[in-house]
Write a structure and sequence with these properties.
single chain; 262 residues; alpha+beta; D-amino Acid Aminotransferase, Chain A, domain 1; D-amino Acid Aminotransferase, Chain A, domain 2; 2 domains; four-stranded antiparallel beta sheet; 7 helices; 13 strands; 30% helix
Length: 262
């Protein structure tokens, strides 16, 4: 934390920390495999974009990289989940950089069951474009999914346009074309979301960002989710609609796993 390597029980967060008081802070989560952080530069860039937007100082990429290298060495873990969190203390106007690490465990299985979160969201909400510590709605939606026998909940706006999941970006495949909601709808520009575009170009598969109505999603051929911890996740059903075709999704998953290990 702020250049010091501490046991988790030694970490002290001020009661005047804005993330604690108001949920005002920003974070990134990413994987390491074989002691190498995956897409770290992309995560730092997204974090700094949010920090600049909200008037925080940018983090130093070299400081982040050094800290992660040391954490891997100290903890002797090669496959991990890393979280980078930036917040401020109100009284001192001090900016806090906290990087913590835990052993990697997937948070989703290979196949997931998803549901539509019933509360409609505002269209193009600026806050959804940033990975902030104000995560209450995401936690409520995720708990709603679990309580009803699902693995993930998807948000739609007040026009029934698809946005994102509580912890994921969403893709659908129709007639051999991959579609995902446009960032203009108001959603997080996921790192793995961008990787999907790169894989599509490598495979020669058409892809498009667009406004997706909920009815289109349920009529699609395949659906998959993405995030930085689990990569590409196959959807077996969305509410009462079940899928048994994962042909294109499996191609994306295979290349993603190769990229992760390279």
């Amino acid at each position: 934390m702020n250049g010091k390597f501490l046991n988790k029980l030694e970490i002290k967060i001020s009661p005047f920390n804005e993330a604690f008081l108001y949920g005002k802070g920003f974070f990134e989560t990413l994987r390491t495999l074989n002691s190498k952080p995956f897409r770290l530069d992309d995560h730092i860039k997204r974090l700094n974009n949010s920090l600049s937007f909200f008037g925080y100082k940018n983090v130093d990429p070299d400081e982040i990289k050094f800290a992660i290298t040391e954490l891997i060495r100290i903890n002797q873990l090669s496959s991990t989940i890393i979280r980078i969190t930036v917040s401020k203390n109100i009284l001192e106007e001090e900016q806090i950089l906290l990087i913590n690490m835990e052993e990697y465990k997937p948070t989703f299985s290979e196949f997931v069951s998803v549901t539509i979160y019933p509360e409609r969201q505002a269209h193009n909400n600026e806050l959804r474009k940033h990975k902030s510590t104000n995560y209450l709605l995401n936690k409520i939606a995720y708990q709603h999914a679990l309580s009803n026998g699902y693995d993930e909940a998807l948000f739609v706006d007040n026009f029934d346009h698809l946005l994102e999941g509580s912890r994921t970006n969403v893709f659908m495949i129709s007639q051999d074309t991959v579609y995902t909601p446009s960032l203009k709808c108001g959603l997080l520009p996921g790192i793995t979301r961008q990787i999907v575009f790169e894989i599509a170009e490598e495979l020669g598969i058409k892809y498009q960002e667009k406004v997706i109505h909920l009815s289109e999603l349920k009529q699609s051929d395949e659906i998959f989710l993405t995030n930085s911890i689990n990569g590409i996740i196959k959807v077996k059903n969305i509410d009462e609609k079940y899928f048994d075709n994962f042909k294109i999704t499996d191609k994306f998953r295979m290349i993603y796993e190769e990229m992760l290990k390279s």
